[in-house]
Amino acid sequence: MQRKKKSKQTFKIILIILLIIIIVAIIAIATISILKPVDELQGTFRYNESVKYEFNGKGKGAMYDNETEYKYAYSVDGNILKIDFKDEAIYDATYTFNITDNTLTLIGGEGTTGGEYVLERESN
Questions:
Q1: Between the CA of residue 42 and those of 34, 60, 113, 115, what are the distances in Å?
Q2: Are 83 and 96 in contact (CB under 8 A)?
Q3: Calpha distance 26→119 (Å, rounded)
Q4: Domain 43-123 class, CATH top level
Q5: pLDDT at position 111, please?
């Protein structure tokens, strides 16, 4: 009889410990998502009258050329920007980038024709 009682107590303790671990994990994941910084590219940057880029700060965006939308996913690693267009007809591109005040400078790399592109921020 005592063995059964001890077994029940051990089971309850293990269950409580597991619940605590699960709760702590959920709180940690929620905190990380809330505190994750929005990337510095968030906003809209205009290249010229007909071309602009939008970055949502969470890895998605769109390029607009004469109001035609080309959606993409993007990633930032240090000062490297990689753009993966959803439409396979458009070449994916890698740029070295720099942001100073409201100016985004892109230096063409893989998948581009090279060159330097200066874009001005429209909104955050």
A1: 16, 10, 25, 23
A2: no
A3: 40
A4: mainly beta
A5: 66
Q: Where are the alpha helices (DSSP H) in the chain?
A: 2-35
Sign of CA dihedral 29, 32, 35, 40: negative
Percent above pLDDT 90 for the chain? 52
Q: Kindly state the tokens that stand for 4.
A: 């059964």
| pLDDT single digits (tens) 43-57 | 999 999 999 999 998
Q: Which residues contact 122 (CB under 8 A, 6 or more apart)?
A: 43, 44, 45, 46, 52
- Indicate the burial class of 106 (C-beta count within 10 angstroms; 0-12, 13-18, 19 or more): buried
In the three-class reduction of DSSP (H, G, I as helix; E, B as strand; rest coil), residue 68 is classed as strand
Kindly tell me the sign of the dihedral angle through the C-alpha atoms of 107, 112, 114, 120: negative
Let me know: does 85 contact 72? Beta carbons within 8 Å.
Answer: yes
